Amino acid sequence: MYTEERMNIGYVTPFIWGDISLTYLKGAMQVTEEHNANLICIIGQKPKDPHNNNSSANIIYDFIDKKNVNGLIAWASHYNQYLTSEETLAFFKKFSEIPIITISNRINNIPALITDNENGIHSLVSHLYNVHGYKKIAFVRGPSYHNVAQKRYHAFLNAMKTYNLEVNADLITTPLPFSEASGHTAVTLFVDERNLSFQKDIEAIICPSDFIALGVSNALKKRHVKIPNDVALVGFNNKRESIMCNPPITTIDPRNTTYGKIAARLLMNNLVHGTEIKTVNYIPTKLIVRRSCGCLEPMANTQDDSLFFSNEKYTEDIEAIKLSLRTFHSLTLKSLEHLWVDKMIDYFNTSLHNPDSDHFINYLQHLLDELKEYEEDIGVIQNFISEMRKFFLPTLKKNTLIIRASNLWNQARVQINLATEYTHANYQKKTDQFLVSLHSTTQTLTTTYSLTDLLEGISKILVDLQIPGCYISLYTNSQKPLNECQLIFGFNHNKRLVLEDNLYYNPKELLPKKYIPSYRYTMILHPLYFKDYQLGFVLFEVGPLEKANYHILCNEISSALYRIKMFEQLKTSEKQRTDLLRELEEKNQELELKIKKRTAAIQKVNEQLKNAIHEARSANLAKSRFLANMSHEIRTPLNCIIGFVEILNVTKSKTEQKEYINLIIEESERLMELINQILDFSKIESGKLSLNNEPFNLNTLLESLTSTYSTIASNKGLDYTLTIHSDIGEHLIGDSIRLRQVLVNLINNAIKFTYKGSVHLLVTKENESHDHITLLFEIKDTGIGIKENRQKEIFNLFEQAENSTTRKYGGTGLGTAISKQLVELMNGQIGVISQENTGSTFWFTAKFQKLDFDFNQTSYNLEKEYASMSLPDFDGNYKILLAEDYSTNQRLVSSHLNSIGIKVDIAENGIIAVNKAKANAYDLILMDIQMPEMDGIEATQILRNLPKHKQTSIIGLTANAFESDIKKYLSIGMNDIITKPFRKIPFLSKIIQHLTNQEVLQKEHTIHEAAITLQNEYLTNTPIDIHQLTEDLNGDTDFTYSLTKDFTNITKEQLKELETALKHKDYQKVETIAHTIKGAALNICAHRFANLAMDLEDATKNKSNYSSKLILNDLVEELMTLEKYLQNLSNENDGGLV
User: May I ask the CATH architecture of the domain 880-996?
Assistant: First the structure.
């Protein structure tokens, strides 16, 4: 809030309504005005004051920073009264970036102006003892928390010791506050509690402040104790009230008028000229003698005061007297002319030697009138006369001059007394007038509930109190006051300013730049708050500095603003209440209308409820039929199983036992199929079943179904045919398993309910986009058909066309319900067209993602690119740990890695892998998921806890390509997954990418690779793709032969293990071995063998022993076929395979 050409000085104080605080402020005003600097008086409260509940005021100290003040004066003695040393340092640390000087107390190394309390108290004790002979001197202690009070107490003890005077503990009070009430407390303590008497026990009382001395004076008068006849009384601080009481109180003048001036002058010299300020600057005190100590007239100070008087010997030279007394200039403010001391001495000398001259008396009256007009301390002139008498008397040699001089001084004393009485009366009158005026003017503030009226009332009050300028700003958010405020009122040159709308700004700016006065000013910054509620702040341009006028005015403004804010909130609440009542009335009317409508609607709903009840009863009946049917369906195979077991128990013929065992197996699988249907529907209903979208060959799936159901239909005397439109691509992405399940359900039903004729499956294209295709599947039969009124219910749970149908043909009624749910999961629809005794057509649609590759061209392009690709040779610079239990896979992976110069270390299981990793450093670890003793998951978790391998890349090897499995492997610490089977180039590209952070193959290569693998799986008519395997092994036919031989030998042993495990129904072991065989078979391109292993893996998951044995037989036959195929190749190629 300052410009480059004018500085801002801040004066920090907890109040300005006392004489001392006002004197400090006036002194600082005088000096800053001389230097053309602005002065901002910042008024808060004493931090942590237990007697004052106005801590909200202290937010004002957060406004102070180097952006709005260049230098700071702080009345420090009030800021550490209730704070610890650490808290005091923390408080002043907020201003550490600003040059600062403190008054009355030293804070750490901050420069300070300190009252010479030691010398002041010493002067009082010396005067009472040396001049009046008092020895029994009592002392009233100030508050224990007040630093100055403690210094004055210790100074008293030291002074008593200096003059060998006894310190009587009964003559010292307990610590008391700086107040008149403490004076009454002290007298009560001495007289009533300690039974002391004046003159006998107490000759004089020293008070550490004039406030306490005034209280003692009043308390003694009430007890009819005369001052100074019965007891002498002295104070400290030279308060205005001390000269106005009767008798006037002898006191110590701390020269408060100089503090503000000296502090401001030192600060300005530091800011302007860089003059260093001493850490401690002691200000000498002066003894002011009045009648309360027993002196009948002013006497000279018995102590030498070098600040006021020179050490020259007194002569008849008038100029020497002028020189000695000119220091009195510093004790006055701007009301007296600069050379008044010289004129007083000249006029006195003239009147002294010319009895007819009245120049001295007239000029004295002129000075007194000036002091009265500006309400300054007349005691300055009284002290000056005393000092002048001291210097003149030694120069007067004639009695006539001595008598004449005494007369002049007596006349001066009379004039001064009259002026003092006038000042006292005028001060009391003005105080009364001010209080009356302030009370009448603030009545407007206490009665208004309108912000507009309040601001208008403030304008009138400012004129009445002669305050030239005022600016009021309110916080936008009382909870976060320092964020933003709004200027709502401006007053300057006795008129209210017209402000712009929405004047929001940062509170630390104090005023928006546009409204900062261009002239030099003194402002008072005062917070506005009500208890704990922050309102804002006000800036007053200084007018008359009467006692507490600004403080009282701020309190009234705060109360009025808070009242208006609460009233506005009340009005808002009332308006909201009125609006709510009106809204409720409107709602009531709406409700009445709705009730009428709903009454009609309820009647309609009742009818609907009747229908719903009827439907619910029908549904319950259907469920009852379903449960009865389900009970029958489950009990039938169970009864068969139990019966066959009982027969088996007594049958000794092995042929019959085998026959019964086969029947038990068939009934068990029938029961398992039934349970699986129920579980499938349960999963769909609970939302737990989701589609697994993967590439598949549509033609292969449909031809597989044809192969199965053409035989079943033929056995029943029916024809089964398949038609696929030629414009449908055979390679799609979708859930082939669930598509197959729907087709199986519908084809089964068609064959079940047809006793002659045919069943035909037709597949056509319904619609197609760039990425997707929707197919229409129609299953047509010439069976019993469905009644028209039952066709909509056929897809409901628990429904068949007729209950009699269930009894005749069997079944649960779940098939079509499950099919409907699965079709909807595939974004399709399902329906039926049927005529009773003629036949039915069940149809459904399903949406798939297209996989439109020209496989031959894609394969050719990819092979061409692979052939031209130059893989790096790492020349043994990298070492990889391979954790793999299957020796064929060990050899295959090692061959691939060795081909590009990578060293391979092999571990047969997870335990060996962990031990090797602990002992060696590896650049990458390949971890098979399923291994004996310790699997890859557990091994990876252990390795991740080893400091050596926290960052080592770990790649999982698995034949489980499901997304859920891959997420699981990555979550336990693996960096990537390679699924089996893997071809050499994509496999090595993944390894190189993790070793060097360089991508070898693009994403589309992976897609093409998956597509070609799919093609190979479905289209390979040989037990092994020997050409692909040889190519992956860099054309090494010998190694290819060795690898395939190794595979067949190991697999023979594994098939034996499978047979044993199935006998003992160890399905977990069967699943593990089948998974291992699947991965190995895929890696050597034996796709048919891998598919059978996968079927076995799935069968053991369902714990189907019969199906598992059948598949095991197929695996044995396929292994024999593979061996024969490899042998034929070897014979055709003279011992080689290619």
Answer: 3-Layer(aba) Sandwich (3.40)
